[in-house]
Each structure stands twice: as structure tokens, then as C-alpha cells.
Specification:
The chain is mostly helical. It contains 10 helices and no strands. The protein has one domain.
């Protein structure tokens, strides 16, 4: 594996991370409601799920999905249902005051993990990156290094976002526009859920 290939992989991942999606919305919600420790746990869950999709791409899950379309469809529908539930809860609680922050690192980690696992299209995206930037699919120690690199990159990105989102100015701005932000987030997540399902 060349440095150029690894750099191209990292740039592709960073490009994808810059596009707001369910993962960032999940992190935003956890950051503003549950505080910094929970946000960092959510970041770890998001990074873990992204790395699991990379592992799935390496072991050939994208090829399996191509051969067994119903398995991909089932995972897509489950992911869409999960995102839809989050969207409905956001919409319903948009005007509710924020609950008291009760840090639950395990729950926050699971929330991040499930949010990122709810998008099975990620395995195709990651597989496309692998096939584009690496001459051959990484195996053995090379694969372990690429996966560790991917995890570190995602964790650094989401942790930095969590630290920024839990600052006093950002929290104050959210509280001023909570209903609007929550309902906008709910609509976006709902649209992503519909798109995922269809």
C-alpha cells in the first residue's frame, strides 16, 4: 500500500464527512441535549460503525448484497425504520424543553453506532473508495492498518464536531431556535429514511 493510496482514501472519507447526513444530525442532537461526555461517546459509536462498514467492504459484503438483493433490501428497510423513528421523536419533542442532561455513555455509544449502521449504502460507497484508490483490496496487516486509520479519522472528525457543538455559544443558539432546528432535522431525517427505503 502506497502513501498516495492512503492519502486518497483519507481525502475521500473526509469529503464524505463534510456532507451533513444522519450521523451529523445524531451527533448534533446528543451534543445539545446530553452534553459533552455523551457527545464524545456518540462520536465513538459513529466512528465504530463507519469502520465496521469498511470491514464489511473488505470482506465482500457489497458483493454478497449484489448476489442476494433481499438481504440488502431488508437491512435498508430496517435502517429506514430506525431513522424514521428518530425523525418522529424529534418532531414530537420539538417544543418540549430540554431534559436534564443525564450522561449515559453506553446509550450514547449505541445511539451513534445504530445511527451510522442504519445506512447500508455506506458499504457500497466504501467499497467504491477501496476499488478506486487501492490497486488490490487490502488484506491482513494492511487491512488492519487501513481500518485503524479509518477509525482514527472518523473519531477525530466527530470528536472535534462534538467539542464544537457543546460550547456555550452553540448551545445558547440552539436553545433559542430549538423548535425550528428540531423540526428541520426531523424533516431531513424523514426524507433520508424515505430515500433509504426506496
Amino acid at each position: 500500500m502506497s502513501i498516495a493510496s492512503l492519502l486518497a482514501f483519507n481525502l475521500a472519507i473526509l469529503g464524505a464527512l463534510c456532507v451533513p447526513g444522519p450521523a451529523l444530525l445524531s451527533l448534533l442532537r446528543q451534543s445539545l441535549i446530553r452534553g459533552r461526555p455523551a457527545a464524545l461517546a456518540t462520536a465513538a459509536g459513529l466512528a465504530t460503525a463507519a469502520t465496521l462498514w469498511s470491514l464489511a467492504a473488505i470482506v465482500g459484503l457489497s458483493a454478497l448484497f449484489a448476489l442476494v438483493p433481499w438481504a440488502y433490501a431488508a437491512i435498508k428497510l430496517a435502517g429506514a425504520a430506525y431513522l424514521g423513528c428518530i425523525a418522529v421523536a424529534l418532531w414530537r419533542g420539538a417544543r418540549d424543553p430540554l431534559p436534564a442532561a443525564v450522561p449515559s455513555h453506553g446509550r450514547s455509544f449505541r445511539f451513534g453506532l445504530l445511527s451510522n449502521l442504519s445506512n447500508p449504502k455506506a458499504v457500497f460507497f466504501i467499497a467504491a473508495i477501496f476499488s478506486t484508490v487501492f490497486p488490490v483490496m487490502p488484506r491482513g496487516e494492511t487491512a488492519a492498518f487501513v481500518l485503524a486509520n479509518h477509525f482514527a479519522l472518523e473519531l477525530a472528525w466527530y470528536s472535534a464536531a462534538a467539542l464544537m457543538l457543546t460550547t456555550a455559544p452553540v448551545s445558547a443558539a440552539y436553545l433559542r431556535a430549538k423548535a425550528w432546528i428540531d423540526r428541520t432535522s426531523a424533516v431531513i431525517l424523514g426524507l433520508i429514511a424515505v430515500r433509504t427505503a426506496t
